[in-house]
């Protein structure tokens, strides 16, 4: 037996360690391969997952979810979302009026000139560079700083350098004077941007109303299919019962005609009801998921039930006051009036003649080198000018026409706002009346449906004891079907009437918890 402390033992230990390391290496490779395969499987599953834009669309959605999907996916709204950003570019463009401007110019040339004191002419080369910074202030003041240098090698000057540092200020005294007129275009651009946001809000509000209305129409259509199916089943049961009673001779065979006709009518109604469901589903799909149009295997299962909201409407005058404050088109019209007033400021200023006060100051230096000319600006040479510049059109007819047009358009806009307020009041009042009518209709159709159920039970009982006919039973079934459909239609009409009322009030987005600036 080998001694564990013999010299051969370390070699065996090294071999064992090598085997263990080899095993660990294999396990590591195996683990890495498993991780890689797992990643590939997950990637394959992710790639195979159709996601929300795939062909499979079996989804149960509530009316709130349908609204949110429409706000996210509707193509028309997505197009409208660009408008505020587009309008904002005009604001940036107008604001750039007061950005300072930097200019630089360098030139070189050759000239021929008459040489004084000598006979004939001579030639010379000239070169120079100009750099300036200028800008307009909202007060109508234009400021400019300029640095220029020139060199000429005329014979009499012997290559003279001239360097000048100048400053000028021009202040408009009449036309173009003041912050109000110079900032008017910027304020108008800001108003245009806010108007586009009001327009977007109005579009989104109309979209939400359309989605909710069509959602409840879809719920109604599916409920009608259920009612017609139940009615068809009842008519088929009635036909079977009559057929058996004809076989045993308890009633005449002529009773079969009415029962068979009623079954045929129910089948026809079911075909129409199912077709209506598909039509409304297509319209709803375009609103909430347009990418799923024309897919055969899509389905939309509404999860919201048509129920009468417990909260009644408030006093009409309060709703009218809310509409005056919240209707997007009315807010847009008021902003347009503000824009018209700014236009009056601009055109009124345009009636004035142009009179500008200007001051120009400069220091110049002359030497036989550029650096020497720059140092020579400390000398006594300078230039200073001050004056007034006046200009005016002879008739000023164009400016007068623009001003009169601005005044007329402003008065027109004020009248348009008053007219729009009248239309808003009328719209709210008519919608208010419709909501109250629809609510009363819900109660009436519920009572009618209960009476028709009693009527059908009574007519069926009479038929079973031989005191009624299959035609009367079929008529009672038809009346019950119509009353059931009318009841669901009344509830849906009431829900839609409230939606249109909130749309007329301008508060639909807020009542749905949607921030008007979030889309």
Q: Please, how many helices?
A: 12
- Portion of residues in beta strands equals 15-25%
Gross CATH architecture of the largest domain: Up-down Bundle
Low-confidence stretches: 1-8, 40-58
Number of domains: 2
Alpha carbon gap, first and last residue: 87 Å
What fraction, in percent, of the residue positions are helical?
55-70%
Order of helices and strands: HEHHEEEEHHHEHHEHEHHH
* CATH homologous superfamily descriptor of the largest domain: Outer membrane efflux proteins (OEP)
CATH class call of the largest domain: Mainly Alpha
- Give the neighbour order of strands across the main sheet: 2-3-4-5-7-8
User: What would you call the structural class?
Assistant: alpha+beta
Task: Determine the mean pLDDT.
Answer: 83
Structure overview:
- The protein has 519 residues and is α+β, with helices and mostly antiparallel strands.
- The protein folds into 2 domains: 65-87 and 185-339 and 405-511, Outer membrane efflux proteins (OEP) (Up-down Bundle), CATH 1.20.1600; 105-136 and 141-175 and 354-391, no CATH class.
- The chain is built from 12 helices and 8 strands.
- Strands 2-3-4-5-7-8 form a 6-stranded antiparallel beta sheet. Strands 1-6 form a two-stranded parallel ribbon.
- β3 and β4 form a beta hairpin.
- The chain is elongated and about 140 Å long.
């Amino acid at each position: 037996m080998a001694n564990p402390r013999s010299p051969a033992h370390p070699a065996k230990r090294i071999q064992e360690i090598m085997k263990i390391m080899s095993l660990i290496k294999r396990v590591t490779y195996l683990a890495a391969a498993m991780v890689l395969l797992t990643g590939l499987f997950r990637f394959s599953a992710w790639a195979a997952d159709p996601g929300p834009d795939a062909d499979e669309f079996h989804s149960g959605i509530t009316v709130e979810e349908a609204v949110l999907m429409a706000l996210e996916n509707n193509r028309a709204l997505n197009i409208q979302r660009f408008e505020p950003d587009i309008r904002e570019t005009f604001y940036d463009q107008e604001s750039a009026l007061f950005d300072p401007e930097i200019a630089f110019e360098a030139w070189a040339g050759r000239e021929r000139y008459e040489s004084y004191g000598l006979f004939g002419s001579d030639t010379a080369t000239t070169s120079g560079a100009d750099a300036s910074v200028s800008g307009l202030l909202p007060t109508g003041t234009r400021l400019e700083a300029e640095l220029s240098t020139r060199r000429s090698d005329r014979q009499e000057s012997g290559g003279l350098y001239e360097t000048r540092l100048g400053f000028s200020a021009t202040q408009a005294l009449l036309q173009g004077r003041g912050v109000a007129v110079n900032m008017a275009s910027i304020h108008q651009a800001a108003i245009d941007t806010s108007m586009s946001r009001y327009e977007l809000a109005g579009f989104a509000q109309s979209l939400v109303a359309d989605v909710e209305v069509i959602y409840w129409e879809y719920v109604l259509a599916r409920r009608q299919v259920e009612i017609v199916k139940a009615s068809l089943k009842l008519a088929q049961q009635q036909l079977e019962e009559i057929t058996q009673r004809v076989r045993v001779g308890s009633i005449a065979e002529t009773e079969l005609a009415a029962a068979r006709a009623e079954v045929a009518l129910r089948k026809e109604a079911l075909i129409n009801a199912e077709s209506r469901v598909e039509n409304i589903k297509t319209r709803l799909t375009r609103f909430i998921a347009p990418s799923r149009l024309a897919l055969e295997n899509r389905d939309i299962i509404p999860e919201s039930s048509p129920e009468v909201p417990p909260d009644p409407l408030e006093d009409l005058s309060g709703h009218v006051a809310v509409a005056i404050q919240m209707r997007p088109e009315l807010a847009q019209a008021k902003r347009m009036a503000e824009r018209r007033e700014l236009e009056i400021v601009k055109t009124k200023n345009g009636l004035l003649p142009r009179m500008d006060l200007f001051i120009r100051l400069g220091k110049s230096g002359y030497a036989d080198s550029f650096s020497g000319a720059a140092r020579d600006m400390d000398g006594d040479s300078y230039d200073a000018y001050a004056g007034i510049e006046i200009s005016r059109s002879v008739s000023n007819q164009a400016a007068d026409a623009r001003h009169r047009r601005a005044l007329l358009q402003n008065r027109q806009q004020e009248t348009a706002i008053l007219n729009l307020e009248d239309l808003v009041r009328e719209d709210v009042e008519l919608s208010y009346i419709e909501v109250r009518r629809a609510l009363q209709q819900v109660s009436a159709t519920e009572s009618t449906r209960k009476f028709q159920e009693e009527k059908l039970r009574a007519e069926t009982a009479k038929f079973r004891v031989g005191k009624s006919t299959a035609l009367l039973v079929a008529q009672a079934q038809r009346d019950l079907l119509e009353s059931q459909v009318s009841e669901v239609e009344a509830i849906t009409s009431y829900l839609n009437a409230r939606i249109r009322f909130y749309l007329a009030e301008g508060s639909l987005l807020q009542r749905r918890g949607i921030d008007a600036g979030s889309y």
